[in-house]
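Order emerges. One example.
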Amino acid sequence: MRFMILLKADKHSEAGEMPDEKLLTDMGNFNDELIKAGVMVSGEGLHPSSRGARVHFGKDGKLRVVDGPFAETKELLAGFWIWQVKSKEEAIDWVKRVPMPMLGGEAEIEIRQIFDMEDFGEAMTPELREQEERQRAALAG
């Protein structure tokens, strides 16, 4: 099972405050543990929303682009991992070991399972499955 581990933003990450050497070291060591355990697929930190944009798709087919920053900090992300684990419980156990990721002393991390082809049932035709597999192979290398 694959899960996306979402590190929620806070006022410090949205202000562009960078982690100190200790936190970078702790996170690097934690990522080493994830990799050695065969759990980590990928992971990245994100710039503040002030450097981003949102694209709204209207019912009328019109697109509207809105530049950041975005107001609701609690709804924003500061980073993510993709993990391959056996269960949601295993993902939770790993999250409990994450070094305190935010500068303000509080943090929230959301765990969301990623769809696999089998989750789509009959809608995932053999042709769509072949396309998906071809795309994954192209991304891998």
